[in-house]
Every structure is written in structure tokens, then in C-alpha cells.
Design a protein that fits this description.
CATH class of the largest domain: Mainly Alpha
Strand content: under 5%
Number of strands: 0
Radius of gyration: 21 Å
CATH topology of the largest domain: Growth Hormone, Chain: A
Helix content: over 70%
Distance between the termini: 22 Å
Structural class: mainly alpha
């Protein structure tokens, strides 16, 4: 696989019709799922009276579902075609998102089970979509424009997340204004109701992804060839195990911010929802800039060093959030975490592909993806209970310690691999 990162942002005209539709889909679903919905879901559950420990259970249900759905999602794509599987997955994702705002209407004796159930449905659909989106884009691009297509996809993902987060921060206040304007009885802006309507709107917007998916002309089934099997050689078990441990530890640290930054700024710092959305959006724009700077960075440093650098940025960001309890530190820390994530994932994928022979890359990255899910799920459960017992500062401090351990492992991996030397 070509692991070159393009030096300049490509134009959509450089790609086929089907490739353009897939790239557009990524931006649309990112605005809905990674943007508004990701920002509002935790704030909604907090306003229903749930605590951070419950939030941890809710997030963990999604992480574990994503882990278990990896292989079935790929098998569905092989059986029914990637376009049909992605379309079904997008619809299932939107369906799960639509179910969450109904939590307050569920009978009290089973209400606590409802949010994790909706999370399972949402993430199962997201797995079907995301697992098949990477091979789908590969099938409709050429060796010459494939890396450019993935780069443009990453940029649109960031722009979609930024736009969705910014709008998501405004939506609850907009709902309150509209209801107050047209009805005599006022609505409490801090109640769950405006957040439920905002979540409903963000979910409905996700239906727009069906339009470009339906416009794809090919069925996107893998093309069977007579290419001889790749000589894989021995599986590098020791190297992959160390890499899995690194990813697990690093993702444990990352989850402390990804899952709990918005609840922290809401309940501890008492920032308004539009302010939280604005701070998150600024970080997402910075992450896009960081991703676009990767071509220049790879001219100077190896992929392993860039991966290690991204983890160091994560350590500094979590340390800042743990040390200072104010909005400025939270905003700067969140910005650093998003910049770190914007650098980390593309470089990790390339770094892993360079370390492992071609025939073992799929298996190795599948194991790494499972480590990501396990790290997120474990810290979601542990972090929610830690917040309840010790507070958010302790959580971010623990996340920084996990990140330090991960950074040490990455330095060890980089020094022990001939390609990095």
C-alpha cells in the first residue's frame, strides 16, 4: 500500500464520481455523529440526573460494541457489498441517535438500560459504516490518487466535526428561544428538554448521508484477481504485542479527555453549552491544521518520532488540565488533545504498516483497533468511578501517567526497529 502523504491538498476534481461521493459522506456523517451528537449526548444524560460513573458505563457499551462488531462488519461488506453495508450502517447509526433523546419518556424501571442500548445500536451501525469506508475508498481510487483521497477525507472529517460541534453548542439555546417565542410557558434552559430536541435535530441531519451513498454507481464489491498470495514470512508477535500495549495505554490517556472534557467544563467549571462547543470547535480546527502539516513534518522526522511527539503533546495537555481548574486551562488542554489526535492516527497507521510485512498488516492493525476499543472502554468505566470518588483533576492526572508509560514504550519501539533507525 502507498504510504506517501500528499504535499498539497487535492481537488475533488482529481477523483472519480464514486470517490467524491464517499468523501462527501465522511464530512456529512462527521458533522452529525462526531460533531453535534458527540458534544450533546453526555450533557443530556447529566441533565437527566445521571452521574459520571453512569456516563462511563454508557461510553464503555459503545467501545465494546465497536470491538465486537469489527469482523462482522467486514464480513457483511464482503457478502452484500460495501455500499449496501455502509448505507445500512448509516441508517442504523441515525436510528440509534434518534432513540437517545427518548430516554426521559421510557418507564422508570427500565430507563437506566435505555441509553446504553441506544449506544450499542448507534455504534453497531457506525462500525458497519466505518469498517467498510476504508476499503470502499480504496476500490474507487487509483495508486496515483489514493493517498490524496485519504488526505482529503481526513480534512473533510475535521471540517464536518468542527461545523457540527459549533452548531451543536448553539442548538439547545436556539430551542429555548424558539419555544419561548411561540409558547406562553417558558422552558428551563438547563433542563434536559432542549438538549433532547438538539440531539433529535443532530440525528435527523445524519439522514443526509443517504443521498451521496445512494448516488454511488458501483456496488463496491471487492474485485477478485488472480494475484498470487503475498509471502508473509514469520509474524512479528513480540513487536505487535508491544505496539498493542502502547496503543492501549495511549488510548486510556486519550479517553480521559475525549469522554469527560465536556462534562468537566459543564459540571465543574460551569461553562455554557455554546462556550463548550466553541472551545471544542477551535480545537478541531487546530487538529485540521496539524493534519495538514504532516507532509512537512515527515520530511524532517520519522513516523515513529512523530507518533512519540503526539503522545508528548497529550501528556502536556492532560497535565495542564489536571493542574489548573479554570476555563483557560481546559480550553488549551482540549486544543492540545485534539492536535495530538490529528497527528497520531494517520502517523500510527503508516508507522504500523512500515513495521509489519504486507501480508500481516491487516491482522496487525485489526489487533491495534481492538486495543483502541479496549482502552476506551476500560477508561470509560474506571474514569467515571474515579471522578465520583476523587474528581476530574485526578482523572486527568491518571490519564497523563498512562500517556507517560505509553510514550516510553513508543521510544523503545522506535529505537529497536531498523526502519526507524
Amino acid at each position: 500500500m502507498n504510504t506517501h502523504i500528499p504535499r498539497h491538498l487535492p481537488s475533488p476534481r482529481d477523483f472519480s464520481h464514486d470517490a467524491r461521493q464517499l468523501i462527501i459522506v465522511t464530512g456529512l456523517i462527521s458533522a452529525s455523529y462526531f460533531g453535534a451528537f458527540a458534544l450533546l449526548r453526555g450533557l443530556f444524560l447529566l441533565r437527566l440526573g445521571y452521574d459520571p460513573a453512569y456516563l462511563g458505563t454508557y461510553y464503555a457499551a459503545g467501545a465494546l460494541t465497536f470491538m465486537m462488531m469489527g469482523l462482522p462488519s467486514g464480513a457483511l461488506g464482503q457478502r452484500f457489498g460495501t455500499r449496501a453495508t455502509m448505507l445500512a450502517g448509516a441508517c442504523l447509526t441515525v436510528g440509534g441517535m434518534l432513540l437517545l433523546p427518548l430516554t426521559a419518556r421510557i418507564p422508570a424501571d427500565v430507563r437506566d438500560l435505555w441509553p446504553p442500548l441506544t449506544q450499542i445500536i448507534t455504534v453497531a451501525g457506525w462500525s458497519m459504516f466505518s469498517v467498510n469506508s476504508v476499503p470502499a475508498l480504496m476500490l474507487v481510487t487509483t495508486d496515483e490518487n489514493r493517498s490524496a483521497a485519504y488526505a482529503l477525507t481526513g480534512v473533510l472529517r475535521g471540517i464536518g466535526s468542527f461545523t457540527g460541534t459549533l452548531i451543536g453548542g448553539i442548538l439547545p439555546g436556539l430551542v429555548v428561544w424558539l419555544v419561548t417565542r411561540h409558547e406562553a410557558s417558558p422552558i428551563d434552559p438547563q433542563s434536559a428538554s432542549p438538549f433532547a430536541w438538539a440531539l433529535f435535530i443532530s440525528a435527523i441531519s445524519g439522514l443526509a448521508t443517504a443521498i451521496p451513498l445512494a448516488r454511488i454507481r458501483g456496488g463496491l464489491r471487492p474485485i477478485k484477481t488472480n494475484t498470487p498470495p503475498v509471502d508473509r514470512g514469520p509474524f512479528p508477535a513480540a513487536l505487535v504485542i508491544v505496539l498493542i500495549v502502547y496503543v492501549f495505554l495511549r488510548h486510556m490517556g486519550w479517553t480521559t479527555s475525549q469522554a469527560y472534557s465536556a462534562p468537566y467544563m459543564d459540571t465543574d467549571l460551569h461553562l455554557s453549552t455554546p462556550t463548550i462547543g466553541l472551545l471544542t470547535s477551535i480545537g478541531q480546527i487546530a487538529a485540521i491544521g496539524a493534519t495538514l502539516s504532516l507532509p512537512q513534518m515527515t520530511q524532517r522526522w520519522s513516523h515513529g518520532r512523530i507518533v512519540a511527539l503526539s503522545t508528548m503533546i497529550q501528556i502536556a495537555s492532560l497535565t495542564l488540565m489536571a493542574s489548573f481548574r479554570n476555563g483557560s486551562a481546559a480550553g488549551l488542554g482540549l486544543l492540545g488533545m485534539q492536535v495530538s489526535a490529528g497527528i497520531w492516527l494517520p502517523e500510527l497507521q503508516i508507522f504500523q504498516m512500515e513495521l509489519v510485512d504486507e501480508g500481516w498488516r491487516g491482522l496487525a492493525y485489526g489487533a491495534i483497533a481492538m486495543a483502541m476499543g479496549l482502552g476506551f472502554g476500560s477508561m470509560s468505566i474506571f474514569g467515571g468511578r474515579l471522578i465520583t470518588a476523587r474528581g476530574y483533576s485526578e482523572l486527568f492526572g491518571v490519564g497523563a501517567l498512562f500517556s507517560v508509560a505509553a510514550s516510553g514504550l513508543m521510544m523503545l519501539i522506535s529505537r529497536q526497529t531498523p526502519r526507524e533507525r
